[in-house]
C-alpha cells in the first residue's frame, strides 16, 4: 500500500492493530503517523487513550503491557512509538507473541525512520491480516519536480515543470521543507490558480531571475556571462540556495548528460529517455548541451563537483560558502 492508500483506508475508519512504518524518507512516515494520531480518536478521547513514546526512552516489554490494556470510554487506544530506530533490532523480538495475536482495540504505530533489516521486516510480516508494513522510499532528486507538481495538483493548484524544477533546485530533497513552503504559498493563492514564479518569489523567497534552475540552464547552454551573474547573486544569498543544493542539481544533470552522450547514437529517443530517467520532452535540453560538452569536459565537471562537495564539508578548505560557489562555477565554465 502507498501512503495515500493508508490514509484513504483510515478515512473509512478501517484501522489495523499494528502499523510498521519504515524507510529512508521520514516525510511519508510522519504524514501517515500524524494522520493516524488525528483520525482514530476524538480530541476528548486522546488524554486517556493516546500514548506517545520515543525509542530512546522505550522499554519493549512495557509497551506490550500497555498495548494489552483496554481503552477508557473509547473504542480504541493508540500507542505511537516515535524514532523507533533507536531501539535495537534484537529487542523487537519481544513483540513476536503480541504481533501474532494483537489486541484488536489497540492501534500500535511504529515510526522506524530508516530502512529496516530483512529480519525485522520478516518479524512484522508474519501476520499481514493485522500488521500493515509500509516502506517509505526516498524520492530521487530527478523526480522532485514531478512530486511537487502532483502535491500541488492534489490541492487544485497548477504548476509548470520549470517552476517545479526551480523550487526543487532551491529547496533540495527535504520533502517536509518543500511541503511546508508549498503550504505557505497556498495560503495566498486561491484553488484553481496556476503557481507563478512571482508567487514563489513573494512567498518562498526564491528569485525568479537568479536561482539554481536558471544557473543550471545557463551552464548547460554554455552562457558564461549569464551563469557568472547568477552565481554571484547566489554566492551573496546562500540562505536562498545552498552550495550543496547547487552541487546536487548540477551533478544530477551532468550524470544524465554523460549517459546521453554514451547512448545517443545507439538507441531510440524513447529508449534514451527511459535509460536516463527523464521525461521525453527534456531530451532536447541534453541534445543542446551535447553541442557544448564533450565526454572529457563532462567528466571534468563531475570531478569539480566532487572536489567542491568535499570543500563544502570543510575538507582542505576554510573558504566561505559564497566564495566556493563563485570558484566552482568559474572553474566549470572555463574547463
How would you explain this protein's 3D organization?
- By secondary structure, this protein is an alpha/beta fold.
- The protein contains 17 helices and seven strands.
- It has helices spanning 3-11, 26-39, 43-49, 60-67, 96-100, 118-124, 144-154, 161-171, 175-186, 197-203, 212-220, 224-236, 243-263, 269-276, 283-290, 295-312, 321-333, and strands spanning 18-22, 50-54, 77-82, 106-112, 131-135, 158-159, 194-195.
- The strands form two sheets. Strands 2-3-4-1-5 form a five-stranded parallel beta sheet, sandwiched between helices.
- Strand 2, helix 4 (60-67) and strand 3 form a beta-alpha-beta unit.
Structural class: alpha/beta
- How many DSSP H or I helices? 17
The global form is elongated
Order of helices and strands: HEHHEHEHEHEHEHHEHHHHHHHH
Largest sheet: 5 strands, parallel
First-to-last CA distance:
48 Å
Q: What is the count of β-strands?
A: 7
User: How much helicity do the residues have?
Assistant: 40-55%
Proportion of beta-strand residues? 5-15%
Radius of gyration: 24 Å
* Spans where pLDDT lies below 50 across 5 or more residues: none
Which strand order do you get reading across the main beta sheet? Answer: 2-3-4-1-5
Average pLDDT reading: 94
Keywords for this entry:
335 residues, alpha/beta, two-stranded parallel ribbon, 54% helix
